[in-house]
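Example 3.2
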Amino acid sequence: MTSSAAEEARPGPAGDGAQREPSPPKAAAGRRRFRYVLPGAWVALVFGCLAFTPSLLPRSALLQGVVCGISAAIGYGVGVAGAWTWRAFADRDPRPPRPGAWRVFAISAAAALVLALAPRPAAAPPAAGGWVWAVR
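Structure, written as tokens:
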């Protein structure tokens, strides 16, 4: 094979009119697993847990789930907007979360939701010093 045949077999530079094939897309290994923002997830967790606090309005399980979901969605939006504002004032790009940050969030979220859903003790009778019964 002569040098001219070797040059013909190689793709030419972009300036000589030869079309180069586009490179294949990168593998999915570089993609993030979640598309969520960690600060938004933390604020959504707080808003979701606060939605389980007792209220004077009785709610069915379905309505409680809807209220909790809407509250968590609003909390996620507030968290994302807060992180975006913080990055805008700090003048930096978003950073990927540290290794294990989502695992810490998942464990904390499970514990927080268990505590938010735990039954609350009833008011103590007056003999036990319950001020609620003394007001009645």
